[in-house]
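Researcher: Batch entry, complex prediction.
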Amino acid sequence: MKNKKVILIFLLPALVFYILFILYPVFRTFYNSFFKIGAFRIKYVGLKNFREIVKDEIFWKSAKNTLIWAGASIVLEIGTAFLLALALFNKIWLHRFFRVAWFVPVLIPYIVTGIIWLWIYNYDWGVLNTILRTIGLRNFVVPWLGNPKTALPALIVGTTWMWTGFNMVILLAAMHSIPHTIFDAAKVDGANSFQIVTKVMIPLLRPTFSNLVVLCFIGKMRVFDMVWVTTEGGPLWSTETVATYIFKRAFKWNVYDLGYPSALATLWFIVIFVISLILGRLIKGSEIYEY
Amino acid sequence: MRKLFGIILVMLIIISQLFAAKVILKVWSHWADEENKKAVFYEVARRFEAKHPDVKVEFTWYQKTALKPALMSAIPAGTGPDVFYYDPPWTEFVTEGLLEDLSDAIDWNNVEPWAKEMWTMPDGRILALQLEAWSVELYYNKDIFNQLGITIPENYQFTVDEFKKVVKKCVQAGYDAFSAGTADRDYPGFFVGEMLLLHKLGKEDMEKLYDCQLSWKDPRVVEVLNYWKELIDMGAYPKNILGIKLGESHRYFYQEKKAAMFPMGAFYPGRAFVPPEKGGQPKDFKLGIMLYPSWPDGKGNNWVLLSPGGALAVSPTSKHKKLAKEFLAEFTNPEIGALWLNKTCVPTGLKVDLSKITEHRDYWNMYFDVHKNSKFFVGLSNIKFKGKMREVVAQILNSAFPAGLISVKEAIEKLEKARLEYLKEQGQ
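Model: Structure tokens for the complex:
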């Protein structure tokens, strides 16, 4: 009993913080989504905000962009990270240097990453267009962030560059945690390197992949800073994400209503929660490997 | 020893009580990185505190994007500032009652009539003190114009046909006709189109367009958009217009000299008249100002859009409303108006003691000469349009259209759809 009290005392500060700054705002947002909220007037509107979301073209556009971003990032970030981790696991030349170099972008804040990519994609003097001009591919020179067809892919490349290192480090740690005897046994059984990777390593890394997929998915479903620094959702909403749209609806549309943006946030929270659960279940599978 | 300790204790208590008695007047403002504007605020605070020794003015400087959400939550909760920077596009502050009435607090004779009028409500309340105001200007590089043999008309205004030739000449010579960047602002890409619309439609119909009462399919609007599109298709704007930020568009014009003209707000001097090493225009740069082109049948060829910039307001939940209003009244002094102009080079809604203007006299002479017959119309797309209409105008007319990404027909379809939706939302 005494022990429980001590535990509670130790937990209390974190618990209070959690309730005040996480639980309360989340539930308040859920609650607000059923109201039209002015500065001094609050009016209950039931499900009206949610019904309006269904007809909201910009929301659907932003939801589509966000889902594309999340889906593409899962493949690009984790796929690339796996290849890089594999290279480091096999101790390629300068592997210690590359381990640090590939991880560094994770340490850079989103805002700075946004500015870096803004410069890389600059039409006149950005490094990408400069290279294209230098090697005679002038026809491929475009304003990467100013063209609705290239803006979203260009930003996805930016976040992939940023987060691949993080996924790589996690995968590398997971690879190192697999007992070497398993690989030796596979070799003895006649497996070649490709088979060892695909038939032994990847299945054993499945729980790690599962966690990374969910983390990557959640991260991209909330992406805001990168867009805000570079395109603010343009051109023609081609890079609008749900997070930037919620912010615009709350603070940029010259309409004081915090109810509708709350409904958007609530709906998006549910979408992220449900898809994360499904993704986690799908990838994790039912097998548990013990070694 | 004990006695001494007692005396010190009593003195400390008295001193602490004295400080505790001081009223703190909280001012939250944008312009965290604009020392010249802050200097004006500090001077006003100094004068105010001299008159009110029991009051301390406490400033919190923000960037605008962070300030708005802070105000929106703090003012209704009663934890906000007494005086705050107010940006006119935040029109919801008016409708939601977040601005205290200032009608009886200020000597409005020391405020420009348009500045008073724009904040005067139908019921007589006056809701803000307009500090900044900038007209939409068309600057040009005199050297480039001389090199291309372009002469500005005596009235500083080309006709639309003449202007088309000017744009063509600039583009053929390898210059962009206009420097512009919309990466971090939702209005400068629309300057040329918006001024052409105002000149064509005149004040009344422009107001109707802003109020969504005039269709984007109106033949005059279509004619303007077609004309503007012709300029765009000639290559009038930088190819990277969507990737250029406001500050970069300034440098594109006067440092890189890649564009012959620069449609920009009259806050231009605030950035251009700093030393070149700090991003200002080169000492030998020859700046000119002209008027936007006139239409043969234009109803508003002498009108100029005037956008109210930063204003000041008093919070309705302030505990020191009277003091807050007195603080604002301290601004309405022609000496402060002159100080503002000298320090910031940005036009103001405060009346100015012209005898005290000491900085950039040539520029101001040119500015007032160009505008000797101009009439100023308070409005700009990012202030006038609301809700989805504002978003669509920003995405289409500020970005996609000048970038050449969208046709006139597509633009009109999207704008008209947003207009009808807006009217439906308003129950009209």
